[in-house]
Amino acid sequence: MSNIWNLLLPVSMVVNTIDKDCQYYQQLDRGHNYYIFNKEYPQNYSAGSSCQWIAKSPKGSKIFLSCDDVTMPKSSKCIQDRIDITFSGSTNLSESHKYCGEGSFSLITEENMLSLTLKTSKRSPGGRFLCAVTALMENTTQMSMNEFAAPNVQPSCQCGWKNDKRIVGGEETLVNEYPAMAGLITRNGKHLCGATIISSRYVITAAHCVYNTDVNTLFLLVGDHDYTTGTDTGFSAIYRVKAYEMWDGYNPSNFQGDIAIVMVDKINFNDNVGPICLPFRYTYETFEREEVTAVGWGQLEFSGQESNVLREVDLEVISNAVCRQDVPSLIDSQMCTFTEGKDACQGDSGGPLFWQNPTTKKLFIVGIISKGLGCGSAVPSENTRVTSYLEWIQRRTGEFFCSA
């Protein structure tokens, strides 16, 4: 394991209960992974263990924390064994986020310091944890919608599964093949845009799908396949949209910054409805030459009939440099796809571009369908690059997202 958290600098101001032999500090270099874990890992920690790790990244950067293996006793409000996390790096944990139970999660800090403290009870049966931290470049814009500030820790979660039980040039998916797929609809059931579930309260879509739209007219459809019948699956449900927030820099004239967060009441998860994985660990990936899958209820051809059933099509991601030959205005936070005779179309907007990790088979949303010239034309389609907005998503929702 390279770049093991081999911390040598002592911490002078810590919580009194911290073991003085288990206090660490690390200055993070950009692009390097550092690991935090109980000193007995992969064995369990001992009852009464208490350790603290403080990390600081370069000025103008954020810290990405990914905890992939957490196995701890679960308690109400995590009053027993827990991991305490503060984003500022302060040793005062009164404003910390608490985590316990089994699962994994990821987050990005608001500032360039982070404190992680392991606290266990004297009667603890033991547990273990393994986390990684990385310094990321800052790219944020201040937002103003207070409704998105409430934290919602998910102590045990899964993401990105696909039920293998097939848009222009595409094919029909299987019923509930993509549990994270959702749709924005009107009060009378008319399909507007695609969306993707990222947690039990939030989905992401394209900003142009909600631009200048009265929130009271929007509803979210999940777990459906043929949205005109309501009989092909027993897992479809409709939720009233409570609020939405567009990226502050969204430009409706050229669709740059075309991303929005939509908030609903708690979505009931099951084997056929659940969140997609967010690509935190792929922040630096361009996905050039990778195959992604566009999913939606959009038109089968330009200005043609919309599909009642959910359809999918596999597309190739092309480099931004190549795409700019046809789309000179393209910016780094956009992603282009092009496969001859295949494309997303009108009505697919806001829906996902899914990428599947070839090893874990987990699905990640790496793009949001945004705009194109016609459908299936010789010009590449433009999509919103999700990795460019991960810190904003995490900050505005206050969620701890699943890590995969």
TrEMBL record:
It is found in: Secreted. Keywords: Disulfide bond, Hydrolase, Protease, Secreted, Serine protease. Residues 22-136 form the CUB domain. It holds the Pfam family Trypsin. PROSITE patterns: CUB, TRYPSIN_DOM, TRYPSIN_HIS, TRYPSIN_SER. GO terms for biological process: proteolysis. One of its GO terms (molecular function) is serine-type endopeptidase activity. Residues 167-398 form the Peptidase S1 domain. GO terms for cellular component: extracellular region. SUPFAM superfamilies: Spermadhesin, CUB domain, Trypsin-like serine proteases. Gene3D superfamilies: Spermadhesin, CUB domain (2.60.120.290), Trypsin-like serine proteases (2.40.10.10). PANTHER family: ACROSIN-RELATED (PTHR24252), HYALIN (PTHR24252:SF7). This is Trypsin-like serine proteinase. The lineage of its organism: Eukaryota, Metazoa, Ecdysozoa, Arthropoda, Hexapoda. The gene is ser6.
